[in-house]
Amino acid sequence: MRVSPLDAVAAVGRGTIGAVRGTGAAALFGGVGLSHLVRPPFYGRMFARSFVEFAYFSLPVVALTAVFSGMVIALQSYTGFSRFNAESAVASVVALSVVRELAPVLAALLVAGRVGAAMAAELGTMRVTDQIDALTTLSTNPVKYLVTPRLLAGVLALPLLAVVADIIGVAGGFIVATVKLGFSPHLYLSSTFDILTTSDIVVGLAKAGVFGFIIALMGCYHGYNSKGGAEGVGAATTSAVVSASILILAFDYVMTELFFAR
Amino acid sequence: MSPALPKIRVRGLAKAFGTKAVLDGVDLDIAAGTSMVVIGGSGSGKSVLLRCILGLIEPDAGSIEIDGVDVLKLDRHARETVNARIGMLFQAAALFDSLTVWENVAFGLLARRSVARAEARRRADEVLAQVGLDASVGDLAPSELSGGMQKRVGLARAIAAQPEILFFDEPTTGLDPIMGAVIDGLIVDCVKRLGSTAIAITHDMASATRIGDRAAMLYGGRIVWEGPAAEVLSSGNALVDQFTHGRRDGPIQMQLRR
């Protein structure tokens, strides 16, 4: 079979149209989900269940990641800065990198893999086993019942996880700096508090809120619209994690550019 | 309301998926308080017909009237009000995995906040008893139940709000003949007790004759025969006869390849 050069152009065109269509559909889906926040009834039990899944059950994995990340940054920055006799900057580098970037981004990526995947799998299974249609027959709006509480839980839970990751990440750097590298605990902590500003913390938490929304939106969107049985549920789960991870990194850049670029 | 007005009236209903016309001008009337069984082969559009009436699929053309009101022209809120008068038993029961059995049965009551949880539990236990299940089953998860018990719970959920209209999608599929007969018996009891109008879709002929007052056969996207359910096995219609007796030869050509 001969392949025309126009076939490649057509493939690019199809891909572009598909991406634009998917982006629009996901944005509309998220908009409808958010609009139910101000239209009763609100399903508090579903919110509580999603919030616990997002925040409480993700705590151990986020805490472990944060502590090791803080420790590694302390070690690496010490190695680099010691070449310029600038070891005293270690505390500042650990604090800024954890609070501004690592805590929200790593927490979000881990939660996307843990909760986003589970969310897509749960809603996907509900779709292919007619449970979402059953909600409609029971006069319950499926978006209001399934999506809205998850979106709110994501937006509220991720900043809390980021706060925990902030504290534990800085603590990880503190442990390595004071125990292994011989820093004074008092000086390390005062350097940490001196360098951090309110905007560092607030923007870090705002990033986490946006990432939480992205995780919940991608999990719900791909799960809710899954098709084709077990294979479709698997594909929805993969799409939810991949798309959420890419969007988290893209929005991290956009928000960093907006708030921190000088 | 005119006494001749059917509870459900379907006219010229059409639905295509891509180039495949699944429903191609379905006309069907179901009188109030009667049970209609729609039979037809796999892929003949029975489930699509049911889902169009329920509002789960939007048809391409035609009208669906419930008590004389074209439900296709209703807005979402009005449609939800109509759906509150309908109960549905799905083919695989479609119970909510994340809820207990009693929460599934009382879902409609809990979701509408019409009763407190304690009262909803009491009502759920009552309805479970109506389908032959003990109240202790209410605390189990759906995954802990057998297929037959899941169907009973699905039936309990469908009748919990005492709907005017009940839909049954392949109610005996996947069940052994005895359990199939038990489920059919429960369906007939529930429909009679509530005085509901029922539509069941099935290709289980024993089930069709047990559940239905009337039967209709869907073939080629249209209703090709309608009559008393008791006559479905001796209709004299070549299409119905071939289907109900499971003959390979006849006017129905099975499509083995797409």
How would you characterize this protein structure?
The complex is a heterodimer of chains A (262) and B (258). Chain A has 262 residues and is mostly helical. Chain A has one domain (42-256). In chain A, 84% of the residues lie in helices and 0% in strands. Chain A has helices spanning 5-35, 44-56, 59-81, 90-128, 131-137, 142-180, 185-195, 198-224, 229-259. Chain A starts with a helix and ends with a helix. The model of chain A has no long low-confidence stretch (mean pLDDT 94). In chain B, strand 4 and strand 5 form a beta hairpin. The radius of gyration of chain B is 18 Å and the shape is globular. Helix content of chain B is 34%, strand content 24%. With 258 residues, chain B is α/β, with parallel strands linked by helices. Chain B contains nine helices and ten strands. In chain B, helix 6 (147-159) runs parallel beside helix 7. Chain B folds into two domains: 1-85 and 163-252, Rossmann fold, CATH 3.40.50; 93-161, no CATH class. The chains are: A mainly alpha (262), B alpha/beta (258).
